[in-house]
Design goal:
The complex is a heterodimer of chains A (411) and B (292). By secondary structure, chain A is an all-alpha fold. Helix content of chain A is 73%, strand content 0%. In chain A, α6 packs antiparallel against α16. Chain B is an alpha+beta fold. Chain B has helices spanning 12-31, 41-59, 90-98, 154-158, 184-188, 232-235, 242-246, 263-270; strands at residues 64-66, 76-81, 111-116, 140-145, 164-166, 172-174, 195-196, 211-213, 225-226, 252-256, 272-274, 286-290. Classes of the chains: A mainly alpha (411), B alpha+beta (292).
């Protein structure tokens, strides 16, 4: 059988899989579709009228879009939390679920790239960034580095999961000679995408709030919290609705790793806060804007303390072994981690970095409805891709859905 | 030949040669230089002609787009006398007129900061929206800020597409046709000097300055970044920037940094000179001084 016909059979099989589902599945898809359409309409208006329909202005020139982008790079990087023990230590309970981490990484990077696309003023010129076709200012611009590492990381994860699922579909084990080196490469790449994204902000001396060498470690630590938080919830959903099996031991182990990562996050935040408040220089302004507001400008203060409270409670829930074993506290901990890191890494990083602006002006940024709709649309598109990929990957990797040569030959 | 089978209007040979030419043209355009920075002069001239036609049609009045090159042995620099500036903002509006900044939404390349005399130069205490009945206001002084034309410019370094760079005469410019509008340069600029076209810029037809330069005041589109170019369209032909000319108190000095006899060199060598945010090592070519 030729490779082409084999592959087209795989594609056809995948289509059959995504067309099958219960009412909940279709309701979920319909929900995502509504958000995607609403986001697309909002984006169309943004393209025709300009970014003036967002709340961003010269003072706060990056906002909700770049915040979400930064957060999602962390989510994508977090697949590595599962990959390291699975492949390096051959730790069986985690090994079988690594593929879902990689699928999450693929969807997250897709969302990252979309968030950059909706943020730029001239999306029609995105090809200017493609080396050869356009001109990528590499190695001087850190954004050029980010474009490269994000795309490479996307490609690696996409190839690995496609290979594994495709082989499983044909009833064969994946080829270790392909998977092992790519997976090994994906580990430094995951660290790389997050480090480079941190450097994107870190390298700007104009913004003291970002110009701190603790930023990259902080990014990595919080990524290792938020990424697994999504996966733990996903695993419980899959275990409930499919024949997918995951041992409690594995879930508890991931939660334990999250507790350590959260400790590191809190510690690094503490170290940063100490330096800012104790040295009490003019650079304290940005941190003060986040935690206590400047004069009557206090928009972000409730978010700051909510994030602190969420992160602290997530840490306490997961550091106590009983907390990560009971399903209620486990899920509360995951939600707290996700929400805490989302606030912290998204708005909490971008907005205080730009407020007050370079000349001391305070413009209080709050995302506009258009920004919220476009962002919801991007998230919905990412989740749609994630859902469809899972719909294909789960039954195939469980061995429930395979190409049967006899049936295939009959056609 | 069978009369029913007429030869096609375009022969196979014609079609093939046109297709080949189109393909070659496409490949040449795709592989050749596309940024204004690297265009050979002949191609630049052709491009500017197209731009002129385009602008002339759009504004209904003849627009010239010059490509005046930098002058050898010239590096432009600026000095502003803080003890003279009265905060009248005439420079702001002269700049808007000269450089075709959008009137709606308003884009202004110069920002005049009102400062408290007892606080000194402290950005966090400054007020760009001061509106007293009369300037200068008692107890205040004024710091106009535009692009500082840094020698170690953070903005050009971060641009992912190389759409902004420093010209040989020291002017930091932007290729409006290559900028993707990511605004990384705006995050990198310590002086708030870069401005984004959040909406389609509008300039009333009779307010358009029709003498433009391709790296300076030619009309821009929405979604791209713009900034002060020391009035590149003027200074490269030996004129002063509009803000220097309009300043009613003579607070603004401009000239060739490499000419030991220039006024700018006199100021630097004889006055108390400072640059903004010196600790960032951006090395501005925009100096502030106390003349009296």
């Amino acid at each position: 059988m030729s490779i082409v016909s084999q592959f087209s059979r795989f594609v056809a099989g995948s289509f059959r899989l995504v067309r099958r589902g219960n009412a909940a599945y279709w309701a979920w898809l319909a929900f995502l579709a509504v958000l995607i359409v609403s986001g697309a309409l909002a984006f169309a208006r943004q393209v025709s009228e300009g970014l003036v329909v967002t709340a961003m202005r010269d003072q706060v020139s990056w906002g909700f879009y770049i915040g979400n982008f930064t957060f999602l790079v962390g989510v994508a990087a977090a697949a590595v939390v599962l990959v390291i023990p699975a492949y390096i230590y051959d730790w069986k309970p985690i090994r079988e679920i690594v593929i879902y981490g990689e699928l999450l990484a693929v969807s997250a990077i897709l969302m990252c790239l979309l968030f950059v696309l909706v943020d730029i003023g001239r999306p029609d010129r995105f090809w200017h960034l493609i080396p050869g076709l356009g001109h990528l200012n590499f190695p001087r611009s850190i954004l050029a580095w980010d474009v490269l590492v994000l795309n490479i990381y996307f490609a690696i994860n996409f190839v690995v999961v496609t290979h594994i699922v495709y082989r499983a579909f044909n009833g064969r084990h994946y080829d270790t000679r392909i998977v092992a080196p790519l997976v090994l490469l994906s580990i430094p790449m995951a660290v790389g995408i997050h480090t480079v994204t941190a450097f994107l902000f870190n390298g700007l001396a104009a913004r003291p709030y970002w110009n701190s060498s603790i930023l990259a470690p902080q990014f990595l630590a919080s990524a290792f919290c938020s990424g697994p938080a999504i996966l733990l919830i996903l695993f419980q959903v899959l275990r409930r609705f499919t024949r997918f099996e995951i041992q409690d031991q594995a879930i508890s182990k991931i939660a334990e790793l999250m507790a350590y990562a959260m400790f590191l996050t809190l510690f690094l935040h503490g170290a940063e806060a100490f330096k800012e408040y104790y040295s009490d220089t003019q650079h304290l302004l940005y941190t003060r804007y986040w935690f206590s507001g400047l004069g009557e400008h206090r928009t972000l203060v409730p978010y700051a303390w909510t994030a602190v409270a969420l992160n602290l409670s997530a840490f306490l829930l997961f550091i106590i072994p009983a907390g990560r074993r009971h399903w209620v506290t486990l899920n509360l901990g995951c939600l707290a981690t996700y929400a805490g890191c989302y606030i912290d890494k998204g708005m909490g990083l971008i907005i205080p970095g730009l407020t007050p602006d370079a000349l001391g002006e305070i413009y209080e940024y709050v995302p506009s409805l258009t920004e919220l709709r476009v962002a919801a649309g991007v998230f919905a598109l990412g989740f749609l891709v994630f859902t469809l990929m899972l719909k294909v990957a789960v039954p195939i990797s469980l061995g429930e859905f395979q190409h049967e040569p006899a049936a295939g030959e009959a056609h | 030949m069978d009369p029913e089978k007429r030869p096609p209007a375009v022969s196979r040979r014609q079609f093939a040669s046109v297709a080949a030419a189109a393909a070659a043209g496409f490949i040449l355009t795709a592989c050749g230089p596309k940024r204004l920075r690297e265009l050979p002069r002949e191609r630049l001239a052709a491009l500017l002609e197209d731009l002129e036609k385009d602008y002339t049609k759009r504004f209904g009045t003849a627009v010239a787009v010059a490509d005046t090159p930098p002058i050898q042995g010239v590096t432009f620099a600026y000095a502003l006398d803080l003890s003279r500036c009265i905060g009248c903002r005439r420079c702001v509006y002269a700049c808007v007129e000269e450089n075709n900044q959008s009137r709606d939404p308003e884009v202004q390349w110069i920002r005049v900061l009102g400062m408290n005399k007892d606080k000194g130069i402290d950005f966090s205490e400054s007020d760009p929206y001061y509106q007293p009945a009369e300037v200068p206001q008692e107890g205040h002084f004024y710091v106009p800020v535009a692009c500082q034309q840094c020698r170690n410019a953070p903005c050009t370094k971060v641009c992912p597409t190389g759409a902004t760079w420093t010209e040989p005469d020291g002017i930091v410019v932007i290729d409006y046709d290559w900028c993707v509008g990511c605004r990384y340069c705006m995050a990198a600029c310590p002086y708030g000097a870069r401005h984004f076209n959040w909406a389609e810029p509008t300039i009333p037809r009779d307010h358009l300055n029709t003498k433009t330069h391709y790296l300076g005041n030619r009309p821009r589109s929405k979604g791209v970044v713009e900034k002060c170019t020391f009035c590149i369209q003027r200074v490269r032909v030996g004129r002063y920037p509009a803000c220097v000319e309009v300043c009613p108190v003579g607070a603004r000095k401009f000239g060739n940094l490499l000419d030991p006899k220039s006024e700018i060199r006199y100021v630097i060598e004889n006055k108390r000179v400072l640059v903004l945010k010196e600790e960032l090592n951006t090395m501005p070519k925009f100096f502030y001084f106390y003349g009296t």
